[in-house]
Design goal:
Length: 395
């Protein structure tokens, strides 16, 4: 089914590579990574991370003290970039506060605050008084905070499907608008660094000691990061377009992709179908590209099978790290910047391309006009989502 395209009237992201679109674009052009040696947690693991600086010095404004935590601080910083709050306020005046949905993806939400609560349990087994705020210990903390911060009153939903979460937020919002449950939607997501993520991925032997090297023949694991990103979807306006999406589930394994990439292929084919685009029309694909051995090989093979060799494809996690539930929106923002500024970003830190990953993988940046692009997000448990974007609305 071909979808009616939705206009992306505002978008922004904050991550280790830059705060806001201009800074992120500058980092992409300069090939300046945001990855640094890990200094997070009391006993840091030997790995690299994409940490957003100075969050500890930027508490939420007093009226939002109930939602105070690292994850919501990061979300607040993201909302403050690129005039995003002002664009939402203008949309609220047009449609009414009850007609703008909020659909946000996250994988851990504010679990860092819960970790702190357990570390500081009193002799009575209770959290310290300042952490006895139930809302920050729920998966919906982020959505509840962002809706309040933007003064909205419509549908508010949290999507938690691991690393595809904030990509699937676009799909969820499109359905709400199509069913006339909303006239516009704020989509995106936030995930912040926390012990559960760092130690959890380390226990799975998935983290690299060095900055991640997607699609490199010697890649050996991921670099974790944190980010917040948001987009405003409306039926009409100026700016790029959401043309379609594809979703699928591998139903194969809790943490490994299907060995033949069946779910990834289904999601890619569905995204092309819903956007009414042939594979030959796609100029650029932002790959999930985590730098783990099998994930990159399987994703590269599927892309090589479906797209011509001239299609440009890359992973941008060498700039940002893997931002988990925020990866979908951050990489969607990078894809939109690529369309707007005629830049196909390469694959940072990849020194020797693995030939098993296909001919589409771009190692160096390339300045070229781009009209249509895809953004891949593949999560644990085989939860897949591919977004199709256009620089303009196709006729």
């Amino acid at each position: 089914m071909r979808l009616a395209p939705l206009n992306i009237t505002a978008y922004t992201a904050t991550c280790a590579a830059g705060a806001g679109r201009a800074a992120l674009l500058q980092a992409l052009r300069a090939r300046a990574s945001g990855l640094t040696p890990n200094d997070f947690t009391a006993t840091p693991l030997a790995t690299s991370i994409g940490r957003v600086p100075q969050l500890e010095q930027q508490p939420l404004p007093g009226e939002f003290a109930m939602w105070e935590c690292r994850n919501n601080r990061l979300a607040w910083q993201g909302l403050a970039q690129d005039g995003f709050r002002e664009r939402v306020a203008a949309a609220r005046a047009r449609y009414g506060a009850g007609r703008i949905a909020v659909v946000l993806g996250t994988s851990t939400s504010s679990i860092g605050a819960t970790e702190e609560g357990y570390r500081r349990l009193g002799s009575d087994g209770q959290y310290p008084p300042e952490l006895r705020r139930p809302i920050v210990h729920t998966p919906h903390s982020l959505g509840d905070f962002v809706q309040r911060a933007l003064g909205l009153e419509g549908v508010c939903a949290t999507v938690a499907t691991a690393c595809s979460s904030s990509a699937k937020a676009f799909a969820h919002a499109e359905r709400l608008i199509r069913m006339q449950l909303a006239d516009a939607a704020v989509v995106g997501g936030t995930d912040s660094l926390c012990g559960s993520v760092l130690y959890g991925f380390n226990s799975l032997e998935l983290t690299s000691r060095e900055p991640c090297r997607p699609f490199d023949v010697r890649r050996d694991g991921i670099s974790l990061g944190e980010a917040a990103g948001f987009a405003l979807l409306e039926r009409a306006g100026e700016g790029p377009w959401l043309l379609g999406y594809g979703e699928s589930s591998d139903a194969h394994h809790m943490s490994s992709p299907h060995p033949q990439g069946v779910g990834a292929r289904l999601a890619l084919e569905a995204a092309l179908s819903s956007a009414a685009l042939p594979a030959q029309a796609i100029d650029y694909i932002n790959l999930h590209g985590t730098a783990s051995r099998k994930n990159d090989e399987i994703e590269g093979a599927v892309v090589a099978e479906l797209f011509p060799a001239r299609t440009r494809a890359s992973s941008t996690k060498g700039w940002t790290g893997h931002t988990l539930g925020a990866a979908g929106i951050v990489e969607a923002v990078i894809t939109l910047l690529a369309l707007e500024h005629a830049l196909a970003p390469g694959t940072l830190n990849c020194r020797e391309l693995d030939p098993a990953c296909g001919p589409q993988i771009l190692r160096d940046n390339e300045e070229r006009a781009l009209e249509f692009a895809l953004s891949n997000s593949f999560g644990f448990g085989g939860s897949n989502c591919v977004l199709a974007f256009g620089r303009s609305r196709p006729h």
